[in-house]
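Quick one, tokens below. Sequence please?
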């Protein structure tokens, strides 16, 4: 019997914004959400889903973002290489990078994983070439010299159904997510196809949605999966992240 994959979660930065950035009608104090990355350790190889931000967003603790300012930041030790080394994983041992999309806070650590092949939706790669914009799509983050594999639609990474890349368009034209089948059940790594659980509860897309029609289709799919028992890890949900234990396998059944 093939051993099951293990799933690890890391926070590779912070994203600070007003509540209305996620749910347009919401008001209140600024929210502080994670910039997650995930490791799937599979008997056939290792995959990292999203890699956080590049070094230019590093700050010293004394120079942290004030509580009332929009922005991104990370501190020493929050880059994906450091997070992997903290659990005794050599960054050079990562076989695949799956970027949900190519915005700067999801692929800024790609260069830290030099031996990985990058898997991205073809339409997302094409969008990044035509929509280059500072603070959004920047080639220095995603075009870092590793082998590139462009995919179209769903892709079974290991050929056994345990790690499936699925298109979740809307936030960007080529956004993708990953469904990991663990012994405890399925987990969907949503990234920015759905920022927070509140977005899905209300079925409200954030303003930062490139394709509203596709975004609603994605939300309907997420709602069906959640109703069927799939656990969804949302893109920048600080409330949910407070319940996530980093650096240990997630959702493992007690022995």
């Amino acid at each position: 019997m093939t051993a099951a994959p293990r799933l690890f979660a890391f926070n590779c930065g912070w994203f600070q914004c007003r509540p209305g950035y996620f749910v347009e009608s919401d008001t209140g104090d600024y929210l502080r959400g994670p910039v997650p990355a995930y490791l799937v350790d599979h008997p056939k190889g290792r995959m990292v889903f999203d890699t956080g931000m590049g070094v230019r967003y590093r700050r010293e603790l004394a120079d942290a973002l004030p509580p009332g300012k929009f922005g991104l930041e990370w501190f020493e030790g929050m880059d994906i290489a450091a997070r992997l080394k903290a659990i005794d994983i050599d960054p050079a041992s990562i076989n695949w990078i799956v970027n949900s999309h190519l915005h700067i806070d999801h692929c800024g650590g790609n260069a830290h994983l030099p031996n990985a092949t990058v898997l991205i939706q073809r339409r997302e790669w094409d969008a990044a070439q035509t929509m280059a914009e500072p603070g959004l799509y920047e080639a220095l983050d995603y075009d870092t010299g590793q082998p590139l594999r462009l995919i179209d639609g769903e892709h079974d990474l290991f050929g056994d159904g345990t790690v499936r890349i699925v298109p979740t368009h809307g936030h960007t034209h080529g956004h993708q997510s990953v469904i990991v089948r663990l012994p405890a059940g399925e987990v969907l790594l949503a990234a920015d196809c759905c920022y927070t659980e509140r977005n899905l509860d209300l079925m409200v897309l954030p303003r930062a949605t490139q394709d509203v029609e596709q975004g609603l289709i994605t939300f309907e799919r997420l709602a069906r999966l959640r109703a069927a028992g799939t656990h969804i890890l949302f893109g920048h949900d600080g409330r949910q992240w407070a319940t996530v234990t980093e650096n240990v396998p997630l959702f493992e059944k007690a022995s």
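Helices lie at 19-22, 80-85, 104-107, 122-130, 139-142, 197-202, 212-227, 238-241. The two ends are 18 Å apart (CA to CA).
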